[in-house]
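@channel sequence for tomorrow's demo:
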Amino acid sequence: MIRSLLLSAALLTLLAVAGPTVAVASGGQALGAADPNPLVGQRWWTMDPKWDPRWIDTIKLNREGKVAEALTMSKLAQAPQFRWWGQWEKPLASKLRGSFQAMDQLAPGSVPLLTVHRHQGKACNPKYLAGGSVEDARYRKWIDQFAATVGSREVVIAFEPDSLGTVECLAKSRRKARLAMLAYGVDVLSKLPNATVYVEAGASDWQGVATMAKKLKAVGVHKVRGFMLNATHQDTTANNIRYGERLSRALGGKHFIVNTSHNGNGSIRRKVWINRTRNLWRIDTEWCNPVNAAAGELPTTATGHPLVDAFMWVERPGYSNGACNGGPARVGAWWRERALLLVDRAAWRDTAVPLPVEQMVNTDLFSGLLN
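structure tokens (generated this afternoon):
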């Protein structure tokens, strides 16, 4: 009981940390290479206690007397990460508005991080149609509603992870339609006056620069701030920066962000045999709950690189990729043990709380949850 009370005091202390004053470039859309980084000075919000399992588990572990685990989870909870929005969020407009209202009440002046993940990507084979033209129409309607709900609010949007990297998973007859559908989404979101948008661009251990640059041009990346890398992969930050530099040159100097939520140990590559008799094989990257994963760099705009606007947590540590390597079967299910493991393996695991996350929101209003 005494240990639990002492932990509560420590958690209350770390929760009373405020980020800097908001000071961002206007809009953030289609800025040139020399324009200021629109993310600098933002205070990033993701910590609605009604849904964020990181904070919920911090509180539960504390109350259960599991002091060390609660402190570990509290470190993970402090790091701003994106909330994903897709067809599972129904009704979309009211849920999105509710999220904004919670932020305005608990941390006014903060900027929500939103991942748009509405495209269909349930299979990969020569006959996969991803819902056909009917689904394309639904997508456009969804994007329109999403944009209308965001309106003039200041937001950061990670646009459609895996959507460009998996175009080849569709039937050939559907690939141009997929690019046109994504181009519609980019165009709609590019017109939001205070949104900073980064378009999916795969990862350094995925497709070649020329292939990805062609796709990004097709969907209109020139209309928004830039692109994002490593959203669902675990390749190293250094590899992604090198890849991003080359991709940026092919796109006239576009800026980018790198997802660092799972890449503390880099990716696992393995040989997969296609035909042993003919000695045909390929190198695949393990993407489904890779066994060596560790949380990478904490979210920050202090990247030390002029083209990299930020290291951000687009993917969410602690959520399962599916029934593989011990994970829950449902994709997106919260996995407490995995979350704790990712922090335990992180290079910053021994950092004292509060963590040095300069863009963390003021979370002192969460203190009542710990009593």
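heads up for whoever presents: The domain at 40-228+313-370 is CATH 3.20.20.40 (TIM Barrel).
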